Amino acid sequence: MAQDYESVIRDSFRRMSTEELIQRRRGDLTPEAAKVLEEELKERNVSPEEFSSIVKAADEEDARLVGLPEGVSETDLASPWLRLVAHFIDHFVAIVILIVFVSTSDGLAWLGIIGYMVYYLLSDALPGGKSVGKRLLGMRVVAFDDLSPCTVGRAFKRNLIMMIPVIGFLDMVSIFGRRNQRWGDRWARTLVLK
Questions:
Q1: Cα–Cα distance between 64 and 74 in angstroms, integer?
Q2: Helices H, strands E: what count in the chain?
Q3: Could you report the per-residue pLDDT of 51-96, keeping only the tens digit for each?
Q4: What is the pTM of this model?
Q5: Which band of pLDDT confidence, cut at 50, 70 and 90, is reported for residue 122?
Q6: What are the sequence ranges of the domains in the chain?
Q7: Rounded CA gap, 16 and 46, in Å?
Q8: Cα angle value 60/66/68 (rounded, 5°)
Q9: Which of 51, 69, 101, 150 could make an SS bond with 129 (beta carbons 3.0 to 4.6 A apart)?
């Protein structure tokens, strides 16, 4: 069975260009596949210079595909996990606003609901594009086009989707995608930076 797997991998690698092989080498491979790939590169007599030039071109292509604004690199993006923690802090702040009004008087419950929604939707437009959670964790929301702090309009647009049951959860999971942007970020054209 292992021999069959190796022969399938070997055939697959033989059909690839040297550039594709080097790209594949940079990804996650099983130990068997990595061994076969190295053997294939040796058979092709790929020089260290050729290898490094292909890797450099691939890195430049990756940067172009990521499509970040000038002056921003992937290392400037806030990690998805930090963003999730900030989201839970902000959700907690919004709930505290709701509880304060509801516990004060039944007649003020509607103010609590409005306060909750206003904070949840617009908190990213606080000074510097920093909600309470983002400020505590050293992050900020900026416009994709000019890196200016998030405006009220952009904050509303990027967070509105989070208010829709099920879709809001899927939006939060989408944070693990390209540029660590959720769907709301893409729609509002925002980035979250460290």
A1: 11
A2: 10, 2
A3: 777 666 665 555 554 567 777 777 788 888 999 999 999 999 999 9
A4: 0.62
A5: very high
A6: 2-66, 74-193
A7: 14
A8: 95
A9: 150
